[in-house]
Structures are given as structure tokens and as C-alpha cells.
């Protein structure tokens, strides 16, 4: 299938996307991830003020059949959480890069996202694992 | 992914062509869902029609003069009460009164019964049943490999199925069946199902499977029929509070504990496990199966622990979102004294204790 992989974002091998705005990273899961999960029925997110190390699990996404943990690609403190996903978890399937942003993290290291994959590298990664 | 060692139904290629996401289900290569997804497949079955490949189920014939007496001696329900063309839900039990499998028993005539058993337990059941024969005048035939089975379920199921047979389907009562031509071939047409909706299960020669499936899909297109996989099959049966062997039932679980007292006719005469069950009934059940719905946000899953206060008292047998009810529900075993509607419980959901409440079952019941 053809994946939607916006150019202006960075990606992790766990299928999270990151949008960097100075030292704030907005994080969600990719189109590939939502497609693998199927219909998303519940998103479990942390609270504002929680802190996470790189690659720590910060929450989970649940489909009818399965639970998938989500890992933060960057370390830092949660500054905002998308509460709308409580009411419309299906946004993860319908608008994974827009309405389904999950949280914003103030990065401990503002350059950490540079070590993540570019859109091109993520696409290569997906093709290699197919 | 290699599926070499997995068993395949005659519809395997069809499932793949329809975009089925294939998984290993008890050694079978089966579709867990198709491109529409589990929620759409579930809702289609509740509102229009769903089509299910259940060819992996097992079929065992018991024939001869001693057929009824034999099956009556190894199952919990009363086989002597069946008439020709009638089926009932029952359980094969072991000497401890635990469930070897749940099944349907079909009576064709006084010398011919068909047992329809679960896919993952067919071999185990065959070994069990053949080992129970004493001196009865019967022949046992494992015909599982010869049959395909397709279920069409939902409010439009009858209208769709009617296109393929001269049998007046409204006349076949629930849990009754007939043998007649369906789409031009001999078939067992059974008004049964595992979804809580009206519908039919069609048993035919396995070589007819692909044609039957495609014809049913085509005939159902005007009604919005969808192929439905194992995930929808599970959410549908859970909303209807139907047991799944391996979850609510097992070798060490009594049907009495699992709300199946209604299929246990302890006064019908001797049967394997009767004594143990009668004793349990007299002593009083220690645990009972209840339905619950989540109160806190979150989803209870199979095997999670159930607490009352700080005490762990039981476990979830099946837990899942319920697509039609738009709630998160489940079945659980709790001690008998807590097994009442309104009882508050908490469930350990991956380290978090979430509130739930016991509710009456079934969670969903279709309008008649």
C-alpha cells in the first residue's frame, strides 16, 4: 500500500512522527501504524508535567483486538495533551498527522529530533521491512 | 509469513483476495478481519448482514441404534428431547464435571445425530468421544474435512438465503434445520448462529464452498452484506454473552459456573460428569460467570484480574470493546456472593485499577 509520509516531519522506527518547533516536539503515530492497528477505539495518554526518557512508553493505543504501546522518540516534559482523542479516538485512523496529534514535549535536547529518520529514510525503512 | 503448517479452509484464497488479514487461529489460517475492519463488519451483521467462513468447525456423525443413548450419556443436555430436524446447544463433560467442549447436537432421525464442535478442539473431541464408546451399536465418523460451513447472519440474512432455496425459510424455527437444495446443491440449512442475530448456517460439500460464498456475497450486495472475520465474530458473540471455549469454558470449569445450567439436565439419567455436577450444585457454586461494563475509561482484556476492594477475587474470561453498544464490556468469574447486578468491581488493566460494574447479560438482545 502507498503510505502517507509528510515531508516536513521526522520519524522513529516505532512508527511515531515528530513535528519540531524550536524546542517543542509534537508527537503522534504514523499512517502506517494506524493502518496496522485497525479501528482505534481508545488512546491512553499521560498528563501534563509527566517526564519521559528517550524511547520510554508514554501511553498506548488500543484497537478492538489489540493494545499497542507508544514510545516517545525524544526525552522531555509533557506540556500539552490532546484530550480530544478521548472522544474521537478514530481521529488516529482518519487524520493521523493532524487531529490525532497526541502530545507535545518540551525537549531536554532541542536537537534530539535530528537523529530521527527523515521522510525518505522512513519510507525506505518501511519498504525494507515489508 | 509461512502458513505451511496451518490448516486452510476451501475459502482461504477468497479471504486473501478480499483483503483478509490472516492469523493463526487454533492451527487454522483464518481472516481476523477484512478491509472494512472489525467495527464495520460487526455493525453490518447487526444492521444488515455478515458472511462468515466457519468451515474450520468439526462435524462428527454418530449413527446407529445406540446413537441417541450414546450421545445422551456423554453430553449434558437431554438428547431424548430432540425431534427430527431439531438441534440443541450442549457440552461434552469429563468425569470431574469440567467441559471438554461445547457443541451443537443435531438430530436427523432416531439413528442419526450430527455433533458440531469447535475448530481448535475437533481432534481432542474425536479422541474423547471414541474413547467413551462401550458396547453401543453405533458408528462414529469424523466428517470435518468433507464439509464447508458458511454462516449468513443479520436482519437481512433470511432474505438473502431465501434466494437460494425453495425451502420456506421462515418456517424453519430457531435451532431447527432441514436438508435440501441450497444454490443447487445438497446442504444442511440450519437456523443457528453465534452472533445474536437471526441467520443461517449452511453446511455443504467442501467443493461447493467458493461458489456458495461468492453467490451469497453477490446476492447480499444489494443489502450491504460484508464478509466478517474472527474479530467481529468475537465481538458479536461477546455482546450476546455467548461462551467461547478456552475463555469461559475449559476442562476445569463447570458449565454450572459458566451460566450453562440450562443445558445441564441432571435428572435425565447417567452421563459423564453428572455425579460431580450434582455434588457441586448441592455444595453450592463457589464462583459464577458475570457480565460487566467498564465505568472508568479503559478496556479490560482477557485474563485481567478482578478485585473487590483490595482483594483479588476473580478474573476476566473475555474483555473487549463492544462496537454496537459503544461500551467496553466483558465476562468474568467472581465468587458467588459478589455475582449480582450492580456490584462494583475493579479490574487491573496493565497496572491501573479501573472501575467496572456487574450488569445483566446478555448485553445485547435483538428485537424479535
Characterization of the model:
The complex is a heterodimer of chains A (130) and B (368). By secondary structure, chain A is α+β, with helices and mostly antiparallel strands. Chain A has helices at residues 31-37, 84-87, 91-94, 119-129; strands spanning 10-11, 16-21, 24-29, 40-44, 51-52, 57-63, 67-71, 76-81, 103-107. Chain A has 4 helices and 9 strands; from the N terminus they run βββαβββββααβα. Chain A has a 6-stranded antiparallel sheet. In chain A, strands 4-6-7 form a 3-stranded antiparallel sheet. Chain A starts with 9 loop residues before the first strand and ends with a helix. Chain B has helices spanning 12-17, 38-47, 67-74, 122-132, 157-162, 209-220, 230-239, 274-283; strands at residues 21-25, 28-33, 50-53, 58-63, 86-93, 99-109, 112-117, 139-142, 147-153, 177-182, 185-190, 199-205, 226-227, 287-294, 305-308, 311-322, 327-335, 344-349, 352-359. Chain B is 20% helix and 34% strand. By secondary structure, chain B is α+β, with helices and mostly antiparallel strands.
Amino acid at each position: 500500500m502507498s503510505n502517507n509520509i509528510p515531508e516536513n516531519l521526522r520519524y522513529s522506527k516505532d512508527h511515531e512522527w515528530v513535528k519540531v518547533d524550536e524546542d517543542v516536539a509534537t508527537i503522534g503515530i504514523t499512517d502506517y501504524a494506524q493502518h496496522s492497528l485497525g479501528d482505534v477505539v481508545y488512546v491512553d495518554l499521560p498528563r501534563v508535567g509527566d517526564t519521559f526518557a528517550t524511547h520510554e512508553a508514554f501511553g498506548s493505543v488500543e484497537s478492538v483486538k489489540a493494545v499497542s504501546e507508544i514510545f516517545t522518540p525524544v526525552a522531555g516534559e509533557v506540556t500539552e495533551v490532546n484530550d480530544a482523542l478521548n472522544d474521537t479516538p478514530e481521529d488516529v485512523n482518519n487524520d493521523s498527522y493532524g487531529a490525532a496529534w497526541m502530545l507535545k514535549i518540551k525537549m531536554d535536547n532541542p536537537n534530539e529530533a535530528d537523529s530521527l529518520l527523515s521522510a525518505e529514510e522512513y519510507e525506505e525503512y518501511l519498504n525494507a521491512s515489508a | 509469513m509461512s502458513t505451511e503448517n496451518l490448516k486452510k479452509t476451501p475459502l482461504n484464497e477468497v479471504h486473501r483476495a478480499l483483503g483478509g488479514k490472516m492469523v493463526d487461529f487454533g492451527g487454522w489460517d483464518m481472516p481476523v478481519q477484512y478491509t472494512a475492519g472489525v467495527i464495520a463488519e460487526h455493525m453490518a451483521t447487526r444492521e444488515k448482514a455478515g458472511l462468515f467462513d466457519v468451515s474450520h468447525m468439526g462435524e462428527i456423525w454418530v449413527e446407529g441404534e445406540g446413537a441417541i443413548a450414546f450421545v445422551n450419556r456423554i453430553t449434558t443436555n437431554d438428547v431424548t428431547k430432540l425431534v427430527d430436524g431439531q438441534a440443541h446447544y450442549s457440552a461434552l463433560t469429563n468425569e470431574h464435571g469440567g467441559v471438554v467442549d461445547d457443541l451443537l447436537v443435531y438430530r436427523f432421525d432416531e439413528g442419526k445425530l450430527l455433533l458440531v464442535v469447535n475448530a481448535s478442539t475437533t481432534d481432542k473431541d474425536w479422541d474423547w468421544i471414541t474413547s467413551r464408546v462401550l458396547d453401543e451399536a453405533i458408528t462414529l465418523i469424523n466428517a470435518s474435512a468433507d464439509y464447508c460451513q458458511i454462516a449468513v447472519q443479520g436482519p437481512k440474512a433470511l432474505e438473502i438465503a431465501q434466494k437460494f432455496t425453495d425451502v420456506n425459510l421462515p418456517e424453519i424455527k430457531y435451532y431447527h434445520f432441514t436438508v435440501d437444495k441450497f444454490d443447487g446443491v445438497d446442504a444442511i440449512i440450519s437456523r443457528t448462529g453465534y452472533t445474536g442475530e437471526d441467520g443461517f448456517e449452511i453446511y455443504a460439500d467442501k467443493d461447493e464452498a467458493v461458489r456458495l460464498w461468492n453467490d451469497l456475497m453477490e446476492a447480499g450486495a444489494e443489502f450491504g452484506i460484508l464478509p466478517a472475520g474472527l474479530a467481529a465474530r468475537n465481538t458479536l458473540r461477546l455482546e450476546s454473552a455467548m461462551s467461547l471455549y478456552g475463555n469461559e469454558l475449559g476442562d476445569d470449569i463447570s458449565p454450572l459456573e459458566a451460566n450453562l445450567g440450562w443445558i445441564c439436565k441432571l435428572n435425565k439419567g447417567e452421563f459423564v460428569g453428572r455425579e460431580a455436577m450434582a455434588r457441586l450444585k448441592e455444595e453450592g457454586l463457589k464462583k459464577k460467570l458475570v457480565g460487566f461494563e467498564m465505568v472508568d475509561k479503559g478496556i479490560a482484556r482477557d485474563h485481567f484480574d478482578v478485585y473487590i476492594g483490595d482483594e483479588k477475587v476473580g478474573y476476566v474470561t473475555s474483555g473487549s470493546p463492544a462496537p454496537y453498544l459503544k461500551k467496553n464490556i466483558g465476562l468474568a468469574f467472581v465468587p458467588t456472593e459478589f455475582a449480582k447486578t450492580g456490584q462494583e468491581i475493579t479490574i487491573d488493566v496493565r497496572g491501573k485499577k479501573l472501575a467496572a460494574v456487574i450488569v445483566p447479560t446478555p448485553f445485547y438482545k435483538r428485537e424479535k
